Amino acid sequence: MQSIISIQNVGKTYAGGFTALKSVDLEIERGEIFALLGPNGAGKTTLISIVCGITNPTSGTVLADGHNIQREFRAARSKIGLVPQELSTDSFESVWNTVTFSRGLFGKAPNPAHIEKILRQLSLWDKKDSRIMALSGGMKRRVMIAKALSHEPAILFLDEPTAGVDVELRRDMWEMVRGLRDNGVTVILTTHYIEEAEEMADRIGVINHGELVLVEEKHALMQKLGKKQLTIHLQNPIDTLPQGLDAFGLDLADEGNQLVYTFDTQREHTGIAELLRALNQQGIEFKDLHSSESSLEEIFVNLVHQNQHARQPAG
Ligand SMILES: Nc1ncnc2c1ncn2[C@@H]1O[C@H](COP(=O)(O)OP(=O)(O)OP(=O)(O)O)[C@@H](O)[C@H]1O
Ligand SMILES: [Mg+2]
């Protein structure tokens, strides 16, 4: 099936000469929830702005549902709803009028029933006559989402949707996003909350210094997540691993003072008992055991870190 968004070779160098995106290739599949993770300044908002036609790329092309975002802007843009990171919400207008007006901007016929539905879904119905400026921050963010959904887009971009949103509301929002996906909407979100990506996403992309350093199915990542390490601190250092331990795939660390055993927590049988027995048989004594688990957060930090080192000039 053709992807709903196709990003090919997209690069962006801002007027001042700063390169925010190098050469990004990314295909977003129809109906998925895709989470884009990355530290501040990685290029997430820049990428979203390009796909939404707000910023022009320096190179490359973007297709939204088959339409070229530059050459067929209106057709491409009408498929997309965008909730921007920066809220522009000091309006005197009412919630109802603001959301209704947004729909009109896309040339769609009025549909009060649709507006009512999304306001209710977002728990904004009792605020429909309030002025935007009189709402709390979390409510304003929900109004932005209502605006983005007003023209029934097939693709929804959420740039930091839950920044500054309380825990309960965040859960409601996740629920809503899942509901949208169930109705066939493709959702791309950026977040700094790793657990949000873990909870929501079908696939995860990590961007750093304008480069996509990883794109993976969440479940595949979770398997990496399921990896645990047992570090065995030896009484006496060893030079080489005895053959009797081959089956465990151990690594020697800390100049032969440590054995590192990596195992899968999702397997019922970890093999730790056998390993300790085998060590005993080989006459290898140890003084301490230490286990650690890699989280998505760790994978993320490592990736970002590696990428940073790779960038530093040698020497
Ligand atoms: N209009 C602009 N002119 C020049 N540089 C810009 C402009 N907009 C963004 N940048 C730079 O491009 C880089 C990427 O910014 P971007 O907003 O895409 O990051 P981000 O990943 O969304 O970060 P955050 O998590 O903080 O929102 C940053 O270094 C930023 O300073
Ligand atoms: Mg941003």
TrEMBL record:
Keywords: ATP-binding, Nucleotide-binding, Transport. Gene3D superfamilies: P-loop containing nucleotide triphosphate hydrolases. It comes from the Bacteria. CDD domains: ABC_DR_subfamily_A (cd03230). GO terms for molecular function: ATP binding. Residues 5-234 form the ABC transporter domain. InterPro entries: AAA+_ATPase, ABC_transporter-like_ATP-bd, ABC_transporter-like_CS, ABC_transporter_ATP-binding, P-loop_NTPase. The keyword Kinase does not apply. This is ABC transporter ATP-binding protein. It comes from Microbulbifer salipaludis.
